Write a sequence for this structure.
């Protein structure tokens, strides 16, 4: 029976699975017995007999080996193994060339990104520079305007001083002219009297002497009046010096800034650049600071400001420019 099955060719009517089933039935073997003898799974044998040669989670090479083993067990020709497909990929002899996907040049993209990023950076840098320049111009304009106002105040002060000096000179000249006029009138009166009474000289000798005495008495009175005016002026000037001395004695602050006249921009900072004061101050304002090691000062109009440090007057250079210095002064 086995020899007859070896010589039976694979007919066109029967598939490989049907040939497996027919050969097993000829041998009077069940699926369980074939599985025990061939060490194949029962599910695999049933799949082969049902013409299922593509198994899940089983590679095609293993399925092909299982089929070859089953053919040998049933004494069937091994050539039948090539009559079915096992899920393998069949590559045609003339494969069509795969058209490559067109990929744009990566370098061109990177260059474009570089140019774009550099342009953005340049725009940002330009905006920051323009903003800084505008702020700088505003600061310069404010400082120039402050200096101009201080110069105008200085010019007005000089004009007022010149006017006062001219008024004093005019008053002095008027006083001198009045004194001279009185003296001239006094001297002119006796001369007129002498001219009138010249024919009677002996009888009027005594009145002439009296007029001379009167003239001599008038001139000492004017001199005494002048001498009396001078001490009064000196006495009136003395209390102002006393008030200055009392002001100096009263100052107990470490740093004291007084705005004596007009306006002035004042900026005061400590060693850590902390702003203690910074704005435009008017006449009469007083700033006082204590318990700081060092001060950084910016005075817009030094002519309008008086500074005391540790009770001593700090000299300021008055040249129409902004004063910048530190206290205590470097020795």
């Amino acid at each position: 029976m086995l020899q007859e099955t070896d010589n039976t060719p694979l007919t066109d009517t029967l598939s490989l699975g049907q040939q497996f089933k027919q050969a097993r039935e000829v041998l009077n073997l069940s699926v369980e017995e074939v599985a025990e003898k061939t060490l194949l799974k029962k599910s695999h044998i049933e799949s082969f007999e049902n013409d299922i040669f593509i198994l899940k989670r089983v590679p095609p090479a293993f399925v092909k080996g299982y089929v070859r083993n089953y053919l040998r067990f049933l004494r069937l020709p091994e050539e039948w193994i090539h009559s079915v497909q096992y899920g393998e990929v069949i590559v045609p002899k003339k494969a069509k060339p795969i058209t490559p996907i067109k990929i744009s040049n990566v370098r061109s993209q990177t260059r474009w990104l570089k140019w774009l990023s550099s342009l953005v950076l340049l725009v940002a840098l330009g905006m920051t520079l323009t903003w800084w320049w505008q702020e700088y111009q505003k600061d310069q304009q404010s400082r120039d305007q402050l200096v101009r106002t201080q110069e105008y105040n200085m010019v007005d002060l000089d004009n007022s001083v010149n006017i006062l000096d001219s008024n004093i000179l005019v008053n002095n000249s008027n006083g001198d002219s009045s004194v001279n006029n009185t003296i001239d009138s006094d001297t002119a009166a006796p001369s007129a009297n002498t001219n009138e009474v010249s024919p009677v000289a002996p009888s009027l000798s005594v009145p002439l002497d009296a007029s001379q005495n009167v003239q001599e008495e008038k001139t000492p009175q004017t001199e005494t009046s002048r001498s009396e005016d001078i001490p009064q002026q000196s006495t009136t000037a003395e209390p102002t010096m006393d008030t200055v001395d009392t002001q100096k004695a009263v100052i107990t602050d470490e740093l004291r800034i007084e705005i004596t006249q007009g306006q002035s921009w004042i900026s005061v900072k400590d060693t850590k650049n902390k702003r203690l004061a910074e704005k435009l101050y008017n006449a009469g304002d007083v700033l006082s600071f204590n318990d700081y090691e060092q001060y950084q000062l910016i005075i817009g109009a030094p002519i309008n400001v008086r500074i005391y440090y540790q009770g001593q007057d700090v000299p300021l250079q008055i040249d129409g420019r902004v004063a910048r210095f530190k206290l205590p002064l470097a020795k």
Summary: The longest helix spans residues 106-196. The radius of gyration is 64 Å.
